[in-house]
Write a structure and sequence with these properties.
With 423 residues, this protein is of the alpha/beta class. Helix content is 37%, strand content 16%.
Length: 423
């Protein structure tokens, strides 16, 4: 039995009051709080072994490099990726947004003939298709929308069910023989709905296309095995999985990483450089890690990955499902509408809602005055809001540190919103 009260006690930021109330933090979909072990790992790195990785022969550089690569292995184990030397499948990025832009840029470079014959599997041209969905975060939509504009490819998308789920049953129609890239979210950041990605992946591979998964909202909440899921690439951020900001990860099947041309250029990613001929780039993952990496943050992210594995992701899922059941009662309040599935099935504890007659920012300020932190706005996902006939909403989202009492505190505050505004 996992003691989630003891886990909550590991988060020092939660031990405070906001506006005279104990802090209730329900905004983990935006960024998660950090346990003390992660905070300590980052500062300990700076205190003891701070040095450039993969560059120096001195002792500190060797220790820093070892810590950096051990962290890569820890993250790989969390998501079912390979980490053995020469077979690594985890690339360090500046975040999920950076990882998705890396892919879109690399695909664009392949379309220009970069990377040789092996890279042509990623090349796009007019008449080719890129497929996303209406549920996507802008960090998925915009890089691939821009890639389509640069290459002349056509952008297509999966529509949504009335409750906001990606219509995976349309895979045979949406994904065609002209499709080259499919990029969809594993869990939608607005609705909390888990996408039925299996039929989408099968169809993607049937037509020889590449499948890209936005795993930002799944890695911190679900048990993940990218090999078992058969995804080609996946991107996510450390700061949503109880790690530091400023770092993320890109998973890629090894043979695909080896074929993919680089997207950014500089030190530490080139094997041989000349003035009068093209450079010879290093093997992955170094090929995609130009410049100085956020080493301290990567080390701390590795600690976060091990910490999550220690809890057990199946335990995280079960704990947050209990809290989600309570949060879904928001839909029972007069004038409140849940944006997403009302049933606590195939979803995580992310619950967006609209309040009839009250602007989301006013709702957020009222709830903040009760010491409760939720998200306000379009959550970087405007198309899905338009699907619901809205421009913005409020969103509560859970983490391992939340309790049923946190959800009940939000429910109590929510019941006071419309009366406060005279409705």
């Amino acid at each position: 039995m996992v003691d989630f009260d003891a886990i909550r006690a590991q988060f020092p930021i939660l031990d405070q009051q906001v506006h005279g109330h104990p802090l209730v933090y329900l905004d983990s979909a935006a960024t998660s709080q950090k346990p003390q072990c992660v905070i300590d790992a980052e500062s300990e790195y700076y205190r003891t072994i701070n040095a450039g990785v993969h560059r120096g022969a001195h002792e500190l550089a060797a220790r820093a490099t070892e810590a950096f690569e051990q962290a890569r292995a820890k993250v790989a184990r969390l998501v079912g990726a390979d980490w053995q030397e020469g077979q690594e499948e985890i690339v360090v990025t500046g975040g999920a947004t950076a990882g998705l832009n890396l892919l879109a840029t690399a695909f664009g470079n392949a379309s220009l003939g970069r990377g040789g014959a092996a890279a042509q599997r990623f090349a796009l041209k007019p008449g080719d298709e890129i497929v996303v969905s209406k549920a996507e975060h802008h960090s998925v939509l915009l890089p691939f929308q821009e890639l389509a504009a640069r290459t002349g490819a056509t952008l297509k998308w999966f529509d949504l069910t009335p409750d906001g789920r990606v219509r995976a049953e349309d895979a045979g129609e949406v994904i065609t023989e002209r499709t080259k890239v499919v990029a969809v979210c594993h869990v939608a950041n607005v609705t909390g709905a888990i996408t039925d990605i299996a039929p989408i992946i099968r169809r993607t591979h049937e037509v020889g296309a590449v499948f890209v998964l936005d795993a930002c909202q799944s890695v911190p909440h679900l048990k993940i095995d990218f090999h078992a899921l058969d995804v080609d690439f996946a991107a996510w951020s450390a700061h949503k999985m109880y790690g530091p900001t400023g770092v993320g990860f890109l998973y890629g099947r090894r043979e695909l990483l080896e074929a993919l041309p680089p997207a950014s250029f500089g030190g530490s990613m080139v094997e041989l450089a000349w003035m009068d001929q093209p450079a010879q780039y290093m093997a992955p993952p170094e090929r995609f890690e130009a410049g100085t990496q956020p080493v301290a943050q990567v080390v701390a992210a590795g600690v976060a990955a091990d910490w999550l594995r220690g809890i057990g992701m199946e335990n995280v899922e079960a704990h947050e499902r209990t809290i989600a059941a309570e949060l879904l009662k928001l839909g029972d309040i007069d004038g409140f509408r849940i944006l997403g599935p009302r049933e606590n099935v195939d979803r995580i504890g992310t619950v967006a809602f609209d309040v009839d007659g009250v602007h989301p920012h006013d709702v957020g300020q009222y709830i903040d005055a009760q010491g409760i932190a939720i998200r306000v706005g379009h959550h970087c996902a405007q198309p899905v809001h338009r699907h619901f006939g809205l421009y913005a909403s409020n969103r509560a989202s859970t983490g391992v540190y939340n309790t049923v009492e946190d959800a009940q505190a939000l429910l109590e505050a929510a019941r006071g919103v419309r009366p406060f505004f005279g409705l």
